[in-house]
Structure to design on (261 residues):
């Protein structure tokens, strides 16, 4: 038996999120089916990030166990022949048997994309949130600065989420603009349920002039979901990257075995 790690990219438009659901197709169910067809085994992948319905990914991470003799690096090629076009494996390798992507120290990066112009552009309809209301990017940048560092992000956590602590660390939070496209990019140690989408919704209210950038301090201090802005729609969100950290805080390859790339 060996454990295989997959780096998975997908367009989440047609899926009910990552985790298996009774009421529709998910990324997890599509992966289980493709791997099962390939190996002849009943397989259950274990993912690092359970993205919501409609959310996309450039680099989510999952593992599965198999007795297949196929070389680990060949799984990406073989699975891409069986998966639908909106799911593609970017890399596969063998990892240690005790490696579980959900229980590792990680650094995750998300991007939230906003199309800000008078009329929508169809080419962006699945991967960006459209608003015709003018947004002041400089105001959004100033507000974003208050969130960098270690804080209690309870105001940015969906109501009802069950977590031991709402304290998280954001290492970097930028707001960039290229013509009509605004990209909010956030890198952190981990994220609460809907945290990035609530940050995006709050920054849009500030960019639209409803709140001052300094109000972000009050939102953090309130530790109350009602103090922050709305949860931005899922389709604008993409999980860009997951990096794994060792116990000493240094980056490592996510449990890859020596000589097995």
């Amino acid at each position: 038996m060996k454990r295989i790690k997959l780096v998975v990219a997908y367009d989440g438009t047609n899926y009910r999120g990552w985790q298996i659901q009774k009421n529709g197709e998910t990324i997890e169910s599509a992966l289980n089916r493709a791997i099962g067809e390939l190996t002849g085994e009943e397989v259950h992948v274990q993912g690092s990030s359970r993205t919501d319905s409609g959310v996309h990914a450039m680099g989510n991470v999952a593992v599965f166990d198999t007795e297949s003799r196929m070389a680990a690096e060949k799984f990406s090629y073989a699975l891409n022949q069986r998966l639908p076009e909106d799911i593609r494996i970017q890399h596969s390798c063998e990892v240690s048997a005790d490696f579980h992507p959900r229980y590792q120290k990680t650094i995750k990066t998300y991007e939230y994309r906003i199309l800000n112009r008078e009329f929508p552009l169809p080419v962006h309809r699945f991967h960006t949130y459209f608003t015709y209301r003018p947004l002041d990017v400089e105001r959004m940048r100033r507000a974003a600065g208050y969130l960098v560092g270690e804080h209690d992000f309870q105001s940015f956590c969906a109501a009802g989420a069950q977590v031991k602590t709402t304290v998280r660390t954001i290492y970097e939070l930028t707001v960039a603009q290229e013509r009509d496209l605004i990209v909010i990019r956030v890198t952190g140690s981990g994220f609460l349920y809907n945290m990035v989408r609530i940050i995006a919704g709050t920054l849009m209210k500030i960019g639209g002039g409803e709140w001052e950038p300094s109000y972000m301090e009050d939102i953090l201090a309130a530790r109350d979901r009602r103090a922050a802005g709305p949860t931005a729609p899922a389709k604008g969100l993409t999980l860009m990257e997951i990096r794994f950290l060792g116990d000493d805080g240094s980056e490592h390859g996510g449990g890859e075995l020596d000589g097995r790339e």
Helices lie at 27-39, 75-80, 137-145, 195-207, 215-222.
